[in-house]
Amino acid sequence: MNIVWQRRRSAAGRLWREFASNRSGMLGLAMLAVFVLLALLAPLWISEADLSVVTAPGDVLEPPSAEFPLGTDHAGRSVLDRTIYGARVSLVVGVAAAVLTVGIGTVVGMLAGHFGRWVSAVLMRVTDFFLVLPALVLAIALSTMLSRSLATIILAIGVTSWPSTARLVRAQTLTIEARPYIERAQALGGGHKHVLVRHVFPAVLPLVLANTTLAVGSAIIAESTLAFLGLGDPANESWGLMLKQAVDTGSVTAGAWWYLLPPGIAIVLVVLSFTLCGRALEIVVNPNLKAHR
After folding, report:
1. What is the DSSP string of the chain?
2. Inside any domain, residue 53
3. Fewer Cβ atoms within 10 Å of its own Cβ: the N or the C terminal residue of the chain?
4. pTM of structure
């Protein structure tokens, strides 16, 4: 067991060194660390009173100043405070929805690739059904039918975004199960559970992790879109909610650019950071991409 863990630690160290050699990946990781740090420390200097429309500290649509570096919104609240606090919801929903998406896709893809025949046929037809349906439209339908909460948004995004992961994992599972050591494991009495848990899953895990990183960015965009359409949780600050309120209150037409740009730029930067990390992980775990780097 110690030898196994030593090999795993050695492999993890090797992967980290290869990832650290990728400049764009490290840039994305640094940007992501800044967003996570701001989200975690936000409650230390931003109080609920600062985010309340009743006790807002500033004037309505006040332009950027020394007191309010990014100006104020339609209720006199600091746009900078709301943007920082909005990172909490966007990151939580993005990560949770991505984990759910990749989790469903991984299970479906592994089962379809391992069992084959009618199991694969049924699972792939279900996957094709979800691929045909527009994911955003289905997510809007689910968000409309269920109560408006963060859990609903996570469920709506996760249930509608897994098919591409399932196809990717299925293809990888078929490749892995064609290797000789899988046949030896089955010949020695290894059952389906042993093969899937002990051999297939560890082999597809690096690809799954890279795909999860990329899926977070898509989930954050989906959450912002749902919130912008009025299907988010109004009780929680998010970047999509800020964009919606900026449009609904006429702040954009009034020329209050400082209300619209910060949440939009924040969405672009956090999605870019996850994308850079995901691409770097793909290069590390995919030898073909590494060869053409």
Report:
1. -HHHHHHHHHHHHHHHHHHHT-HHHHHHHHHHHHHHHHHHHHHHH--HHHH-SSS-SS-TTPPP-SSSTT-B-TTS-BHHHHHHHHHHHHHHHHHHHHHHHHHHHHHHHHHHHHH-HHHHHHHHHHHHHHHHS-HHHHHHHHHHHS-SSHHHHHHHHHHHS-HHHHHHHHHHHHHHHTSHHHHHHHHTT--HHHIIIIIIHHHHHHHHHHHHHHHHHHHHHHHHHHHHTT-S-TTS--HHHHHHHHHHTTTTTTT-HHHHHHHHHHHHHHHHHHHHHHHHHHHHH-HHHHHT-
2. no
3. N
4. 0.85
Per-residue pLDDT tens over the stretch 4-38: 567 767 777 787 888 888 899 999 999 999 999 99
Number of C-alpha atoms within 13 angstroms, CB side, residue 254? 16
Domain count of the fold of the chain: 1
Residue 103 lies in a domain: yes
219-235 confidence digits (pLDDT tens): 899 888 888 888 887 77
CATH number of the domain to which 100 belongs: 1.10.3720.10
Classify 61 in phi/psi space as left (phi over 0), alpha (psi -120 to 50) or beta.
left
Q: Does 236 reside within a domain?
A: yes
What is the token pair recorded at 263? 């949440």
Nearest 5°: the CA angle 166, 32, 73 is 110
Q: Which domain does 192 fall in, by range?
A: 85-291
- Which residue shows structure tokens 């527009």? 134
259 CB neighbour count, 10 Å cutoff: 26
User: Using CA atoms, how far apart are residues 135 and 156, in angstroms rounded to an integer?
Assistant: 9
Retrieve residue 23's tokens: 């400049």
246-265 pLDDT per residue, tens: 888 888 788 888 998 999 99
